[in-house]
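Entry 12.
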Amino acid sequence: MLASFTLLCSNLCIFCVLLLNRFPEVAKLVDVCWLEIRGVINTIVLSPNTQYAAYVVFKMIDAWGFQNRPVELSVGVEGGQSSTKIVCLDPNVEEEGRQHNRAVGLQRPSVRSDGWLEIEMGEFFSSGIENEEVQMNLLEIKAGNWKSGLFLEGIEIRPK
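Predicted 3D structure (tokens):
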């Protein structure tokens, strides 16, 4: 797991203590209209010849600005293949027939056994032959609406 304090987050993130968390601090998103979270891991620390998936792990506490807003997730190996997908971080199911709902049919996060939410960012292959960097991104920079209340634990990388 890449802890939130090792990730590049939007300008208005603060770090706070959130009980029952595996890290001493998590990042809390405070009033941003440009959401950008970036993480990097070197494949040298991963098992060779293994397919991995990256998951963003977070909570929404008194959150606003995420309802029916698409967010772009991407994962890619430096100089190699990358994948991008559009998801909705709001865990609540969209209302049927709601006008201007940009997130209808988009993947939503699932609740983990520890109570945090997670959503898969994408997959990558660690060949073990080269010393490569995997870049993982979460972006919402198009809507321009204000967002708050996202608590970021980190990005978890697991074998598929």
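Annotation: The radius of gyration is 16 Å. The chain has one domain: 2-159.
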